[in-house]
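Colleagues,

Please find the record for the two-part complex below.
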Amino acid sequence: MITELEYLIQKFLDGETSGKEERTLKRLLEDTTADEYSEVKAYFGFTTNEKQKDEIPFDFREFTFGVVDNSILLNKNRSLKRVLWIAAVGVILITGTFFIKLFSPERPAKQKYSEQELREGLLNTQKALTIFTENLNESISGIESIGSLNESNN
Amino acid sequence: MTPERFYETIEPFKEKLYGFAFRMLGNREDTKDALQDVLLKLWKMRFEIDIGRVESLAMTIMKNVCVDRLREKKKLNGHISETPEINGYTLTNFGDKDLVKRVGEEIKNLPEMQRMIIDMKDIQGYSYEEIGEITGLNINAIRVNVSRARKKLINIFRKEVTNDYGT
């Protein structure tokens, strides 16, 4: 017949023990003096020992703040880089546009007058030309009449 | 979340994080780097963190960081046996330095998953459910890994104890 200790050891090895059973197992092992369970005792001694050694050998607070500060600084640098990139792209665009304008062939000048003004201009020019033509015709007929007068005198 | 609040959130389980990484990676330099990676990742996730589950999240990240680092080491060196601190395992309270070394070497030879799970279960004291949350494994798979690792390790202790006492 197996004892409670043997039963719990077997269960422990099978990974079937609950937390409560493991505590009972440890207590029973501490109480027993039998050599046959030394390896299980050693195992528990080992795991307890390992747990005690988890102490961090440096200032964790300082370490954490160092990591956080570095991360913040890195983010700031990233943001600064982003801004610099945007500024650089802006400068390149502006400079590029300036040089394209500078070296591109001249475009036809913009219309200085509106359509209405042009029409008025055209009408005035037509009127002026009509007056000019009338006057010219009158002058020509005047000269012709003088010419015919001279011929008759001769 | 302020840096101070962040520190207060992590502080209660800092030893678990450090101890786990130290035993997995085997030297203090790598452990410090892994801890830094975990803190950085947690800080970046600070706005999405559920405070009630931050410990299991941190352990999950640490587990992944350790696995990545171990795989990287394996790739570089072909194996990971040259760590002078025997993967963090020492047995100074047993007085026998050879035993410390031998057990350390044996533990190092356990499969990665068994090593992780046994650390979480028997050293850190996590429940099966918590380990399931950290590793993403189901409880039966965890029990199987725990059982195999315990049997192997206790066998080693049995051999060592038998040799020491000459029985």
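Chain A has a mean pLDDT of 83.

Comments are welcome before we finalize the supplementary table.
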